[in-house]
Amino acid sequence: MGDKMRKVKVAIIGTGNIGTDILMKLQKSEVLECGMFAGRNPNSEGINLAKKMGIKTSINSIHAIEDDAECCEIVFDATSAGVHKYNAQILKRMNKFTIDLTPAHVGRFCIPVINMKDCIEKEVNVNLITCGGQATIPIAYAISKVHTNTKYIEIVATIASKSAGMGTRNNIDEFTQATRDAIFEFTGIKNTKAIIILNPAEPPVIMRNTLYALIDNPNMEKICEEVYKMEKKIQKYVPGYKIIVGPIYENGRVTIMIEVIGRGDFLPAYSGNLDVITCAAIEIAENYAKKTIKE
């Protein structure tokens, strides 16, 4: 039983909203533990929280992992697209399994409900696309399984302005491009668009994602079957994920609206945009860890 109970050490780079949410989620994991929480801001809320929890911290970012290679087997990169391109080279050289939560797209796009098995068995760097991508692409994929002749897909992710940290704000262009690229990769549909809206409303809005698909004579019964099957799979690791409108069809267009309520591990429940991507990251890391422990 000793080996089975072993926890796999992970490091988090980036001490902002996303990195700190991962840190809090790790406290609930039966197979993961945090061996390093590293960033650049000595006064960040995340760093101070980690210190209080007795977790090793550093403001030397990626170089903290270089200096202490034994601190982890898995690395979560929650920095920015530009920074990850630099970090990825170092982590590859160190042979660390890396889960990239930026829109850098250095590694393979990974969505747990679609291609996780291949990602954890064949890759050393996987990319989680964007929050909007994690929320909507599985639904687009479900539609594409029914209708390969889908003419157009558009996704609109609306999030509370308060839940968008500097990383999100600095990566808006990368967000739209990475999401579009991933829609095409997973569905084969070339004509796509991705939009993100930061809503400053008070009280803050819950994350909502709307997907539009142009399809001639859609088989709505089959679409509904595949879409709701996908919803249940996602809910296993993102409990607050829910389809709240549709699928409905009118004027040649299928519309589906998805709501994501966060678990409140670090930020309030309205930050479902963080939750959908950090839950996906934990799901991938736990499955990779279980594979490592068995080996």
Question: Can you describe what's shown?
Answer:
This protein is an alpha/beta fold. It folds into 2 domains: 2-129 and 275-294, Rossmann fold, CATH 3.40.50; 131-269, Dihydrodipicolinate Reductase, domain 2, CATH 3.30.360.10. It has helices at 2-5, 17-26, 45-52, 62-67, 81-93, 112-122, 131-146, 166-170, 172-187, 220-235, 272-294, and strands spanning 8-13, 32-38, 57-58, 74-77, 97-100, 108-109, 125-127, 152-160, 192-199, 207-214, 241-250, 253-260. The strands form 2 sheets. The chain has a 7-stranded parallel beta sheet, sandwiched between helices. A 5-stranded mixed beta sheet has the order 9-8-10-12-11. Strand 1, helix 2 and strand 2 form a beta-alpha-beta unit. Helix 6 (112-122) crosses helix 11, helix 7 (131-146) packs parallel to helix 9 and helix 7 (131-146) crosses helix 11. The model has no long low-confidence stretch (mean pLDDT 91).
CATH superfamily of the largest domain: NAD(P)-binding Rossmann-like Domain
Main beta sheet: 7 strands, parallel
> Shape from CA axes?
globular
Strand content: 15-25%
User: How are the strands of the biggest sheet laid out side by side?
Assistant: 3-2-1-4-5-7-6
> For this structure, what is the CATH class of the largest domain?
Alpha Beta
Query: What structural class should be given to the helix and strand makeup?
Result: alpha/beta
Low-confidence stretches: none
Distance between the termini: 14 Å
Mean pLDDT: 91
CATH architecture of the largest domain: 3-Layer(aba) Sandwich
Number of helical elements: 11
